[in-house]
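So, could you explain the following?
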Amino acid sequence: MPMATNSSDLQAVLKFALEWRKGNPNSKIPIDNDGKVMEPRILKASKTVLQYTDDSTTPKYVNVILGQDMDGRMVTQNRAVIMGVLYSVDLMWPKVALSGLHHILVTMDRSREYFLYAHTHHDVDISLMMILECVKDGSCNDAGESENKWIDPAVWKSPDLTFTRESSSLDSCPNSDITIHGQNLNSKKCSSFHNGDSYKNNRASVDNKEDRFRDEQCSTSTCRQLKVATYNVWNFNSYDEGSYKSRMSQFGKLCQQNNADIFGFQEVRFDFKKRAHLGPNQAQHLATLIPQYQFVFQPAMSYPEDVFSRVEEGVAIFSRHPIVSHSYILLSRELSDQGDTHQRICLHAEIETPQLQKVHVFNTHLPLSETARNRNVQEIWSFIQTHPKPWILMGDMNAEPHSKAMLFLSGLETIGDVTTKGFQDVWTALNPEPRPGSPGAYGENEARDSGLTFNTLEDQLVKRIDYLFVALDGTAEIEAVDLIDDGIRQQEVTSDHLGVSVTLNATKREQRNEI
């Protein structure tokens, strides 16, 4: 539901989120001379009550004992089980150059503590900031209309966004026209604009100029490289009681050493019982370990031990570069299938990179059931096709390379009369397929083939189930593929999976046009 921008709970949410992130080296949160966060402009705010359900549809109710009446009889009340609240806020600092448009997701648990699920931000056209200044005093809206009516995140990333203004008066702008997606706001006053200027955003022209600028600036191979990695966090597991903190510290070091521009993490948890470690929210743990990244965490499944607990697990995307938008789909499941009881999702992030411009990144964690995986990869493929290339799909697929689902993603298998096109499995693009560690596949002391990613809890890795698929459409080439591996097996492992990373080398604009 929408929230009033001056509500006390919204102000508390913002205070928590902005204070928690203000010291981050990539947060772009403006700080005044006294070290305090400057007051932002709230563009849009909403909250969602998180209610427990047994079947993903019907709200769960329990009888709560309120006490006794005058006759000593027990008084109960049937109440919905509320797990928490999720707040979504879009905000910006119009008067602060390069501060950008920010999106924040904060959850409040049953104990009324706040936790950060997402903080993303990206640059916006300066003319939008000027329009915001008009909106501040109501001068750029029709009388009686809500100021937030037309201020939507979709506006900032639209390819056909156009701003025009014609006026001969600096003070009153009586004939000013401001058009967004064909909607004339017919403002009566636009004092923030300079007299006689025209503000137009021709996206094709801008993209060509940015392309040429990047080509001129990126004369070395390093600045043309985009590195992307997938890594299963292994939720709150650890090799012995109390060692989670040291395990996560090692996990963060491996991520820093890998130095990917974009990470996709799986098995990221919120678990209310884990406060004794680093707190219940693993997304914040990761944001502390690799603080230079924006991030979005999206829970998928919930499996609390009782109706009043809160345990959520999902996937996250972390990026050094601006996350322009993010979304997700729920993947279908069949509760009668024992390998498909947990809810799964595919998380999407649109990321503005200096190497490839906008890249659409997808992160998922597929179920244990082969039937479910075959169904889910079709749903993911349909979702991916609603976005323009280049595409990057990553995740813990719980499937080996010869499986129907993985062959489908590689374009080598048809499922339901559908065949994918354009995806490359980055590992096999540069390396031979590793032999799985099945009985008899290797000699007694024979080293395992490189490329296996699971299970580090055994003395030897046995299979490849972690993947990166790319559809680059001539924008880049696969330059290198690496494993994220500290070599530890069986005891004190960093994760039960190895991570996988790919380095993409962007082609120059003139090369793209030739393809």
Q: What stands out?
A: The first strand starts at residue 41 and ends at 51. The chain is about 20% helix and 30% strand. The longest helix spans residues 203-217. The mean pLDDT is 82.
